[in-house]
Amino acid sequence: MSNYVDVMRADDIAEGEMREIEVEDHALLVTRVEGAVYITDARCPHLHAHLAKGTLEGTVLTCPWHGSQFDVRDGRVLRWTEFEGVVKTVAQMARHPRPLRVYESHVEDGMIRVGEEKAPIRE
Ligand code: FES
Q1: 111 CA to centre of ligand 1 in angstroms
Q2: Does 123 have pLDDT greater than 70?
Q3: Atom of ligand 1 nearest to the CA of 68
Q4: Which residue in 25, 61, 85, 113 is deepest, having the highest Cβ count within 10 Å?
């Protein structure tokens, strides 16, 4: 996505809501938190669950399958699965924690627009 692309009307997403949309064959998740709009990948970086079926509490997005949590503002991993003990260790060795991809976005003329992927966060 080299330029900004219209994805949906800003009025069509309410506070605390999540919407999965398709843009140029790419599944994206639009969220609105405290009036701000954030756009991330729609699939979990763990094993590709549909994140729109998870929960959003403030900016914390929780995956419906294994409970990984991400901050929708920057994609930061807050929790990598809800496994514990040796199961968690093995799961992390099999698939190490990785952030959720986040995209530039803004509202223009009442439309939410998506742009390039933001630079990955460094922890
Ligand atoms: S698929 Fe999301 S935590 Fe496993």
Answers
A1: 31
A2: no
A3: 3
A4: 61
Regarding the beta carbon of 63 and ligand 1, being less than 6 Å apart is answered yes
Name the CA radius of gyration of the chain, rounded: 15
Q: Which domains does the chain carry?
A: 5-115 (2.102.10.10)
Residue pair 75/102 in contact (Cβ under 8 Å)? The answer is yes
Residues β-bridged to residue 19: 30
**Residue 45 exposed, middle or buried by CB count within 10 Å (0-12, 13-18, 19+):** buried
Closest CA to 38 of 63, 55, 16, 65: 16
pLDDT in tens, 23-54: 989 999 999 999 999 999 999 999 999 999 99
Six-digit token string for 65: 């399958």
Where is 56: in which H helix or E strand?
strand 55-57
| CA distance to 17, 68, 84, 110, 116, per residue, from 58 (Å) | 10, 15, 25, 23, 24
Question: How many angstroms separate the alpha carbon of residue 3 from the centre of ligand 1?
Answer: 30
